[in-house]
C-alpha cells in the first residue's frame, strides 16, 4: 500500500513501523472480554497534504496506560523503536465507537539505495 500511495519515503522503514504498530495492537489492544467473533484491528494508511505517511492502527481497547512512558521505551520497546525509525507517535479516541487509534507519522524524504 505504501508504494500504491506513491509515498516518497523509505518504504522499508514504513513497513517496520506498520509491523510494530500491528504487533502492539494484537498484543495490547484486544481486551480479554471481547468474544472471538468480535475481535477487530484496523490498519489505515494515507498521505497528508505535506506528503507525510499516516499509519493508523485502531483497536478495541480505549486504555493505554502511560502512553508517554511507552513511547520513551519504559514500557516495552515497540513504540520506542517506531520513534527511532523517525515516526512521530500519537494516540486518540474515536468520535464514535470504541477503542483507540495509535498513529505514526513518517515524513517523506530521500531514500537510501
Overall description:
By secondary structure, the protein is α+β, with helices and mostly antiparallel strands. The chain is built from 3 helices and 4 strands. It has helices at 11-28, 67-72, 78-84; strands spanning 42-47, 53-59, 88-92, 100-106. Helix 1 packs antiparallel against helix 3 (78-84). The longest helix has 18 residues, at 11-28.
Broad structural category: alpha+beta
Which residue ranges are poorly predicted, with pLDDT under 50 across at least 5 consecutive positions? none
**Could you give the order of the helices and strands?**
HEEHHEE
Average pLDDT value?
Answer: 90
Query: What is the general shape?
Result: globular
Sheet with most strands: 4 strands, antiparallel
Q: What Rg is obtained from the alpha carbons, in whole angstroms?
A: 14 Å
Strand order of the largest sheet: 1-2-4-3
How many DSSP-defined strands?
A: 4
Fraction of residues in β-strands: 15-25%
**Termini separation:** 20 Å
Q: Please state the oligomeric state of the protein chains shown.
A: single chain
Helix content: 25-40%
Number of helices, where a helix is a run of at least 4 consecutive DSSP H or I residues: 3
